[in-house]
Design brief:
Layout (H helix, E strand, L loop, with lengths): L8 H20 L9 H7 L14 H4 L6 E5 L4 E7 L4 E8 L1 E8 L2 E13 L4 E13 L1 E2 L4 E3 L2 E11 L2 E12 L2 E6 L2 E12 L7 E12 L1
Length: about 220
């Protein structure tokens, strides 16, 4: 009858030690997994610009360059004559509002404007003169479009029938959407807000305003 012989304990322990050593070396040779930081990865990814990128050498991209001088009329030249029935006579109104702005750096402008208004009615006439500084910033939107918000203050004096009536200080905001059909020429239209800050009778005017001009 066949009898099983006992396996030496030392041989068994030797095989176990050899297997554990091989397994440890295999684990050490595996690539180390470094946890990634999702926030850092997103920060390094390229970001879209906050302001649209406009192709260079287009009319809207050229407009607003450093040292450019713009000459425009923010209200246009207005000449009107109104006739009233039943012998009321007629009223003539002439208004001109030229403006000049200078870009001290790219897209940042400093400027000012004049306001001349003359109204003649059958019983009286009035003349308004105004002047004021302003600051603006041009934002190109496309090869032919930009937006040019402007903020300023104006001082105006109204004289009626040869005597001084009132002097007012006003806040002026104008946000036109500019169209640049060709270099050195532009036109724009947008909302305007004029708020009297001083004077016995304060008024607030909300209007749509047109600007036409060019730059040097």
């Amino acid at each position: 009858m066949y009898q099983l012989r006992p396996v030496p304990v030392g041989l068994f322990l030797g095989f176990a030690f050899a297997f554990s050593s091989v397994n440890a070396r295999a684990q050490n040779n595996q690539p180390v997994q470094i946890p990634t930081n999702d926030a850092a990865a997103r920060a390094e990814a390229p970001k879209e610009p906050a302001i649209p990128t406009v192709p260079p050498n287009t009319p809207a991209a050229i407009f607003g360059g450093k040292h450019q001088l713009t000459i425009a009329s923010d209200a246009g030249l207005s000449i009107s004559n109104t006739t009233v029935n039943n012998g009321g006579g007629s009223t003539t109104n002439i208004q001109l509002q030229p403006a000049v702005d200078y870009f001290i750096i790219d897209n940042l402008s400093l400027g000012g404007f004049l306001l001349l208004n003359y109204t003649h009615a059958p019983s009286a006439h009035s003349t308004t003169f105004g002047i004021g500084p302003r600051i603006g910033y041009n934002i190109p939107l496309s090869p032919l479009l930009s937006i040019w918000p402007k903020l300023g203050f104006s001082f105006s004096s109204v004289t009626s029938s040869g005597r001084s009536d009132s002097n007012n200080l006003a806040l002026n905001i104008f946000v036109p959407l500019m169209v640049h059909p060709a270099p050195h020429f532009f036109l724009g239209f947008g909302p305007a807000l004029d708020v009297d800050l001083t004077g016995d009778t304060k008024s607030t005017t909300i209007a749509g305003r047109l600007t036409i001009g060019g730059w040097l």
